[in-house]
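ok so I'm stuck.
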Amino acid sequence: MTKANTLTIAEGKKVYFASDAHFGLELFNSPIESQKHFCKWLDSIRPDCGALFLLGDMFDYWFEYRSVVPKGFVRFMAKLAEFTDNGIPVYIFYGNHDMWMTDYLEKECGCTIVPDYWEGDLLGKRFHMEHGDANGDPSISFKLMRKFFRNKFAQWCFRWIHPDLTMWFGYLWSNRNRKRKKDSKEKNFLGEDKEFQIQWAKKDFAKHQEIDYYVFGHRHIELMFPLQNGEKKATLAIIGEWINRCTYGVFDGKEFKLMNWRAD
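replied:
not stuck anymore, here's the structure
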């Protein structure tokens, strides 16, 4: 969990949000070209970016050993370092594919790692943000797998396997899972009653009516959903993905928007 009462954003700057780039995935696009495309977007927002929130699954697979990290991703990580070197805070969240981050991106790129959720004030509004995989996913197998992968003893055991084997296993598991979901209805809006993130946000907002915006990733859909409890109102934003549609969120202090980016 990471909490901050207020993150000060300079006047005229905006807050940007992205999620689910799954860098390293070879099923749809060239991993290097996917990074280049995302980095062009980062270049385009840097002049007016006051803070950047990357809400998980930026890597399709990531596991840090004490002295070894997965090779690749240098373009992406260099851009993160450019942002932080220029005083732009970057928050990168655990996803369900890259929950094994420890301190490498903090030490090398200056990012802040968020294992669970971030809650605080941005430009005068209260935000609750997380990847969203923990918020009521109905799949029992997914819940068990998530619990196992977050277990410290299981991670310690996994660390003793040679990196070549763990990388092979990680990408094999991920690609098989992605192929299974390629034509699944899960990537479409399932309806208010079946979207577990909506149901979770409704329950949480009933208890925490100071929240103005809930922002999640994970579902790979683009959604702005209004929440209301009595006279209190909030908005749930599910910010899509960067595999195909390249969706991001932007907040200027007055309005939260979901947008799709394409390089000219």
